[in-house]
Specification:
mainly alpha; flat
Length: about 100
């Protein structure tokens, strides 16, 4: 059911958050991590919302992961910011801000 909703509304982070919570409650941390990462590949999410998403993910890893998984989230967030800066420098479309 959620996959269909996400296919229709891929930028709705509230829906993604519910799905992450459901997977976490089931004990499937790997699936929850996969969902966090999938969001980072969705085009057109506003920069501020992505920042909050990375913060949520980092907090989640603080509770459910370890230093390695937290470091991975930090690196992905840095890569995201670098990519936005490069696109802006080139005059490319960075999506809605």
């Amino acid at each position: 059911m959620f996959e269909g909703v996400l296919g229709t509304f891929p930028k709705r982070l509230d829906i993604w958050s519910i799905l992450v919570d459901l997977e976490t409650n089931k004990g499937d941390k790997d699936r929850a991590r996969g969902l966090f990462e999938r969001v980072t590949k969705v085009k057109g999410i506003k920069k501020g919302k992505m920042q909050k998403w990375f913060e949520k993910w980092e907090k989640w890893e603080g509770k459910h992961g370890d230093q390695r998984s937290q470091g991975r989230v930090s690196k992905l967030a840095e890569a995201y910011v670098t990519k936005l800066a490069e696109e802006k420098r080139r005059g490319g479309d960075t999506g809605p801000m």
